[in-house]
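Task 17 of the worksheet. Students: predict the tertiary structure of the chain below and write it out as structure tokens. Keep your answer in the requested format; marks are given for formatting as well as content.
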Amino acid sequence: MWGKGKMRKIGWLLAKNVCVPILVGWLAVPAQNYAASFQFQSLYPYADEQQSTARDQSGAASQSASQSASEGSQQASPADQREIFIREYIIGPQDLLEIRVFELPELNQTVRVSEDGSITLPLLGNVQVGGLTKDGVEEKLKTLLEARWLKNAQVSVFIKEYQSRRVAVIGAVEKPGMYELIGRLTLLQVISQAGGFKENAANEIYVLREGKDGATTSIAIDLEDLLLNGNQKLNIPLMPGDVINVPVDKIIHVYVFGQVKNPGALQVKMSKKITLLQAIAAAGGLTEGASKRGVTIKRVLKDGREVKIRVNLNDIIKGKKPDIVLQEGDVVYVPESIF
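Model answer:
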């Protein structure tokens, strides 16, 4: 029989060489295996319910995040919008197409679509492309080439000019010319592309639009109402073929003399239509010795005749008579009061 001392020593050796390695090996088991071997449901039903709820909430949050990401992807960037426009654009007359066939360099051409919607290419002759998209033209050319010339044709089409979807901007803008309708563009967006209005632009511009029957209609746009009042109904979407006419506003001169504080010449845009009272106010107003009854307007008619219009300012001020719109070259004279 072993003594107590030897027994303690053997026990210590067993613990060191057997129990400790077993314990370490047991702790080294992957957490997922340990979790799988340990049944929480049987021991802790409430904890299991909480864990299940957390998983459901996590799944719902993940689904919500996925939906948000999907919705965000639907809000296309300008680059994406341009790509969509190019992909969906219907080719029409006067569009300029750059065509490349990798196996046949002889077919590499830059051609303009004719009025009947066709193009002419070597080997293929006259090909109808009007009414097709870019991908549609590529597929059509591929089919025609593979029917007679190539086994696996690789065709690319690049639209260099979108002539059938253009608008013209003429008149008092910084950069008049033709502009492509890439996507849906409004009046102000195209005016912005044209560099904006010049200082001598008229207050009213016109959008000329040709209807299906060939008749042209004129849409008048009041810039003051659009830009200053913010009437967005006037910021109309443009259509292919529209012509935006920005008339040059003529500067007219009227003259105010007599009993006003600052007599002299006044310059004003014709579209502003300055009236008699406004002209007197712009000249500093009446002096203390001015007569309101004997005001005259000297006007030269188109035929060269000169007429004088006598005005009683009191009648206009009191609303008994309408204010008079002045014309180019009018001379207003305010006499001195007798009393």
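Marker's comment: Residues 293 and 312 are 4 Å apart (CA to CA). Confidence is low (pLDDT under 50) at residues 1-7, 9-75.
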